[in-house]
Write a structure and sequence with these properties.
Number of domains: 3
Mean pLDDT: 95
CATH class of the largest domain: Alpha Beta
Bound molecules: iron/sulfur cluster
CATH topology of the largest domain: Rossmann fold
Number of strands: 8
Structural class: alpha/beta
Largest sheet: 4 strands, parallel
Distance between the termini: 23 Å
Radius of gyration: 20 Å
Order of helices and strands: HHHHHHHHEHHEHHEHEHEHHEHHEHEHH
Length: 382
């Protein structure tokens, strides 16, 4: 296999990838992955499942290799041999055990204007059903800035990126062109996404699969920064906090977007940003299926973010990703440091207060996990 050949011939076995990896500590993993991908040997599911897909290993590798580049094809191979499990189908919008449909059965879902507009806001499944505050705050800011926008929310517009990441490319094939057509129909010039996963789908994956898009794709942090720069939003309230910006892996490392969220924070009076660059940023522990396969280990990784914020003397963590938000809130139940979504924090600075129900959100999502995944919390499986 070409990929294995490339990795084997360039890897110096220096171990720098493992020094930063929050999940693996044995270089023997590389041989296991080579053997499995070259069909010389089998591999245990645990070796594949532990990866957060955070990309820290590639960033640290002097040869730009890392471990994730082998894990991703190995996971796909595993799925082709063993089939999909409920942990994967639960993010397929057409599956019976879809997580977001289950949450919609248990709780009221906010309804947004869905008509036409020069801007389409795409809250994604997480913003629609779980971290509703992300979408509510963004919509409130778009109203305040008098933007001509509409919203495409709900599981019927699922971008398919999470399914693809878990080894099931079908939802992205099914929904990609449909989503593009829906955005065109609304006459949009700009699409803004709440989650880094949806951002990557539209910005990177869709053009490769369906051709060049005729609208601009921005992450919400980029659009909020633009609104401030153009004077359409003016954060006037003083928020006296020392804040830690938690870089979502799939936004910072995967897509290279990390400056705009920091610029937004630096425009808020009284707010001091402690980490001005993404240097030493780390994962929240949610991604790569780790949250559902290893719940308590996933939350332990999230707890480390609180220690990093504490070290810098911060009283608030800001992030802008549905998965990061959920894991940080769940891991922080007993922490003094509070977590805010970027749009939510900016809303506060613009005089808008969004009501948040963290315990209800956690109760709902954990209940839905138990309903969608057989033996949730007891067993592991791809
Ligand atoms: S850091 Fe790169 S070169 Fe070093 S062991 Fe890891 S993959 Fe190999
Ligand atoms: S992507 Fe993250 S968790 Fe996976 S091997 Fe690399 S550093 Fe470890």
């Amino acid at each position: 296999m070409e990929l294995v050949e490339k990795h084997r011939s360039n890897c110096t076995e220096c171990g720098q990838c493992l020094e930063v990896c929050p999940r693996y500590n044995d270089l023997g993993l590389l041989d296991k992955l080579y053997g499995y991908l070259e069909e010389h040997s089998d591999i245990d599911a645990d070796s594949l499942l532990r990866c957060l897909t955070c990309g820290l290993c590639k960033e640290a590798c002097p040869e730009e290799l890392g471990i994730k580049m082998l894990i991703s094809p190995a996971r796909q191979k595993w799925v082709s041999e063993h089939g999909l499990t409920d942990r994967q189908t639960m993010v397929d919008p057409e599956a019976e055990n879809n997580l977001f449909k289950k949450i919609a059965e248990l709780d009221e879902t906010p309804v947004y204007e869905n008509s036409s507009g020069s801007v389409v806001y795409f809250p994604g499944c997480a913003g629609t059903y779980i971290n509703k505050v992300m979408a509510q705050a963004t919509v409130a800011l778009l109203d305040k800035a008098a933007v001509d926008y509409t919203v495409l929310s709900g599981v019927e517009y699922c971008c398919g990126a999470v399914s693809a990441g878990s080894g099931d490319p079908e939802p992205i094939r099914r929904n990609g062109q449909l989503n593009i057509d829906e955005i065109r129909k609304r006459g949009a010039k700009i699409l803004i996404t709440a989650c880094p996963g949806c951002f990557k789908a539209f910005k990177d994956i869709y053009p490769k699969m369906f051709g060049k898009l005729d609208f601009q794709v921005l992450h919400v942090s980029q659009y909020l920064e633009l609104l401030i720069r153009e004077g359409k939003l003016a954060p006037e309230s003083v928020l006296k906090h020392k804040v830690f910006y938690h870089d979502p892996c799939h936004l910072t490392r995967a897509m290279g977007v990390y400056r705009e969220a920091r610029d937004v924070l630096e425009h808020i009076q009284g707010t001091e940003l402690a980490n001005k660059s993404p240097e030493n940023s780390a994962c929240c522990g949610f991604g790569g299926g780790v949250r559902v396969n290893y719940p308590s280990e996933s939350l332990d990784v999230a707890s480390d973010r609180y220690r990093a914020a504490e070290k810098l003397g911060c009283d608030i963590i800001i992030t802008n990703c549905g998965g990061c938000m959920q894991n940080l809130i769940e891991a922080g139940k007993k922490e003094k440091i509070k977590v805010f979504d970027l749009a939510e924090y900016l809303s506060l600075a613009c005089g808008i207060k969004i009501v948040r129900e963290d315990s209800r959100m956690l109760e709902l999502v954990n209940r839905a996990y138990r309903l969608c995944i057989s033996g949730y919390g007891k067993s592991k499986g791809l």
